[in-house]
# Entry
Amino acid sequence: MAVCIGFIGKENSPLFLRCINQSQELQFHYIMHTCIDFVEEKIIQSNKSGSDVRELYLGLLYSSEEVKAYGFVTNTKIKIVIIIDSTNSLLRDNEIRAIFRKLHNAYTELVCNPFYTPGDPITSKSFGALVDELLASSS
Amino acid sequence: MCIMSSKTQPVITYAGDTQLFSTLESATVQGLPQETVEWKRSYGRPPRAVTLSASFQPFKIDNDGFKELSKGLKKLSGAEVLHTYWVECQDIDTYKANVRESIQTWFTQIKQVECSDWLIILVENSDSKKSKQILPRTTVLDKIKNDFGGKTTERCIAVVDPVKGETKSSESWQTFLFRLRQALMAAFSRTLTKFEETVRTQRERRNELNWNFCNYFLLQEELAFAFEMLGLYDEALVQYDELDALFTQFVLNSAVGDAPDWLLAFQATPNNWSGVCLNPKAPFNTELRQKIQNHTMSVIDFRNYLFARQSALLLISSKPAEVARRCLSYVQSYMYELKLLNVSTVDGAIPTWILLTCLQVLSTCQSHVGATGNQSMESFALLWNMAKDKLYELGRKCGLLPGASVGSAELHCVVTLSSGITDYGDDSAVRPTPVDKLKEALSSSQAFTKHYLELSELAMGTFKHCGRLRSARLIGRDLSRFYLQLGQPQKSVSFLLDLLRGYQEEDWPLLRIDTHIELAEVFQKIGDRVRFIEASANIAAYPALNADTRMKYFSHLLQSAQDEFRSINCSSMMDLVDIRIHFDTSLEEPCSVLCDSIVRAEVEVVNHFPGPVKCSEVTITVKAVKNANDESKQSKAAGKKSVADKSLDSKAIEKPGVLAAKAKTSSSDYIPIKEQLHLKQDGSLSSVALVCPSAQQLLGRKVSHGLLPTELSVIKEEYTHKLSVKDVNIVPGVNRLTLQMKADHAGTYVLSQFVACSQRLEFIQSVNCPKVSITVVEVMPSVTVIKTRDDLLAGTDQEVELVIRTGSTAFQNEKTLRLCSSRGLMINLPKTDSLFQRELDLVLPPMAAFETVSYPLKIRADLGFTASKEATFVEHKLSVHCPWLSKTPPLLDLPLNVYAPFTVQYKLHTAYTKKFVNIHVQGLTPSSRAFEFQNPNVLLPDATYKNPALSKLEWRNLNGSSQTLKISQDQPANYLWELCGAPAQYDLPLLKAEFSVDYRLVGTSDWKLFSFNFDIADYATLFTVRSRVEPVKGNDFLRAGSLCHMTLTVSDVLQQASSAALMYEVLADQALWAVCGRTAGVFSMEGSSKHSVTLDVMPLVCGFLPLPAVRLSRYIPAEQKPKETNRKADLAAATLPRLEPFGAGQVYNWSKAQQVHVLAAPSNNGPTSFDTSTS
# Structure
């Protein structure tokens, strides 16, 4: 049950955040921000291992009693974070990877738009609709 | 550990000679685990090297064995895996007599038990072997092998009794141990495989009704024990993990529907929530295991046991970090399980359990981590954090939070919770144990506070230690709230500010505002009005917040603005989005305005506040840039460079130029634009284009890094000027303002800060991007003199133009300009009636900026310098005195070069006794500017005639009548007068004469008088010289190469017999004449008026040869003392003879320029004549 999807920019500023329950938005902001810690840690670890082909999917970043956060980082250091409900055991690793792939594709398409400056907060409606759809379908 | 291992060790039975074995048992038991043995495993699992130990039991056959055989292996621990038979037999006869039979009996017995691996050990005595020198044909061992070995003869081993302690015996003992290990391993492996089979079968039956997880758990745990015994801790862990997963799956399935009966037992309400016990000295909690055996355990007990076992195995494999990591997911999944199983618990039991578990794990792991570094810090930090959160939850439940009241419900809660926590009776644990700590924390509010702060500190510190700053700061948020509850808001400030900094750095607006709201609350409580204002401003300006909150803080802001002075960085509140400065486009320099003009800037300010802000003044401060000159130089250099580029591209001619980018979004840096003219082959224009050479860079896509530096506080910078507007009301949304500034000093300025003053608040924002600069241009007034194309000439009136430019400054009143000329130069303003003079004042009318006035000016320079040969021009100066030019030196020198129109030279000519005065006038001007001369005259001053000797002097004019002469560069003029009546005598006085002539420039009307003074000396002829060259007697002609006579005749013209000695010198051209003998001689004219000298000369070439020149000088002999001077310096000169040359007019040479005709030498004696000449 994905409850929140967030995009974090290269310099760790939020680009986009969408969640199912609007009242939890602030809380998710806090979680997203904390997730940067974990993402950075994982990136450093993968750099240390020195593998050429970097795995973009970072796996589970953070888990608490309520939520679990999964991370994904693009080659341009854009971080994608999916927050799912902890009680959800149906959403397996593979499904989460699939969601990340879709989100990554959506982001790639967004950047292809010449009127979008990479690094600016994302305001594209079609992009938002796509994320909403993913949130709805995975819940 | 020891208890457990003896239980799980495989058992080896022994039979046969038990007495013999008892002597060897201890050695065997000790020797067995000394070396590892390779374990080849089934199902393709990798082989492992393991250490095996075993315990020995006497072999006995019982009836139970038959039962087990039918059911399959039920129990692994204590299973008999290998049977041994020990025998000592010296010779074959004994063997045949009784040993063989007893072995046979044992052999049949072991075939009946399930595990039928066997080993027959023949213990030999080395002494007996030695005594028999001859090897027996067959040994006892061979016999045994033959009888029982079958295909596996290696099961029969002979060993030399090690008690004798010989080298050979120890060797044989080691071999025996190796064989025993091998056999035991093989046997154990076989047993294990069988047991695994049993476990698998049991698992397959898990959906049957009478299947119980507890039984299965105990069964599979035996496998784990076995692996642990073998030292394969990871394999053991796998068993537990499998059990863990199986259980979890059951729980998950139960949520969907069918919960097996045995699971109901797990739903019992737990009565103990002491957390996991990780006592390293007792990794095996028998009490809990007993509960499992009795099926009387709660899920909490089961999980505790399982996790304790897993942790113990991980700790043995020295992976404390893994323990901490697992603990997290363990705790989380556990809570989830409780929910699924609907286990009813005492309120607060679960947090207590989690808290204790975390603390227990942390204390255990940290004692284990030691030197392994900080790789496990991440998990520790999370555990500390969780413990902290849970303690807070407990505190809330038990009413221990600051400010909370403790009622009966809370007290009851404390009592209930305390009853469920025990210390497992581990006395060796380090005090205080987690349980002690929790009990203390629950005892009082103060103790709770202390423990909560301690845990927070630890969590924060550990997060920071492992570089998770954001997580650490988030704990700060909890802490700040806690301090706020404690009534110590000042302590929470630093945490919140830290958070705020983090959110600002990474630009998380929502979190920033949330922190601002908390900060505002804190500041209000502290009474920090100043920072409260700032926080309020930030909150009020955040658009995503609800209107009520914003208005609330906005009104706070406006209220506080009346009495608190504060500068606020307003980039998020009043955003300066656009600046347009009206530049003076008429100026050459881009982005510039004139000095003293008013600069206007239109700015667009977006007010994000929910209400209007009344500003007393809105300004943009302007700073002067110091290196204005350098920049302009650079730009000039750049311009030159681009001109040079032109030569490279022959087809395209480029003109450098700049276009100021006045688009509102782009920066005000100039985009270099070049004009390109494309020419056709024949040179005619094909096309014109504007080219931007750096288009690639300029059109490149910008990547926003999303991080504009936003400082918390700003400082108002120093400034020199400001664009400002007073009293404006800035309404929410876009505001357009026009700011003004007077540009009173030249220079380059950049916009520095935007400042909006509202009451006592200052909203400040740096104008960083785009960087706008203003160039204030000041053009100095200037005064110059412009002459016509031709050079200025002295002696005649010349017209120049005086040009005055006002520059950027206008003259309001009349100004006076004073002109002074240097000596020899007169000036005159033709418009006024004044005369030529050296100083004059010019009154200037009021003038506008950049106005130019010019005045014609006449100059007249003296001709006095024309007599000298070198100076053809004089550098005159025109000084302009303008005291009203404050910024320039008041005295301005303008150089004026004035050229001479002609030069005059005087020369005295002699014809025997007659004297002629020649005045040569050489023009210097081109023929287009020729001069006319008339009325030449030579005068001697009247005083000359008073001298009686000179009274008869008179001039005879040899010039034509009053003819006008035109002279120029190409046309000189000569005037000639004869000086008559000069007395013939020595020592005539010098005549001072003056030549005067009227002159004018051709084309002008009035004549001017030019006079030239000169001195006439030596105007009496004293001697004449006459020289003659004649052939020697007998020759009629002069011939080249033949000697001839040269006769010099010197006559005294005055015939006043002077006693002076004279010296002649024949100065012959050596190419023409060879002088034979002396070329010079001294003679005295005393007594005669004539003196002749004859020399032999020889012409060297034929033709008309000029006569050799003769120079006559006055000879002063050496004996003669210098007159009147006794100076030493002259003594040396006086001892030598001296020559004194005559003046030009004193000696007349008759033969000057005479030539003689020399014939060619006769051809036959030509060579001889040459010989003569050379000798």
Remarks:
- Chain A touches chain B at residues 9-15, 25-26, 29-30, 33-34, 36-38, 40-41, 63-65, 86-87, 89, 114, 117-121 (CB under 8 Å).
- Chain A is about 40% helix and 25% strand.
- Chain A has a mean pLDDT of 86.
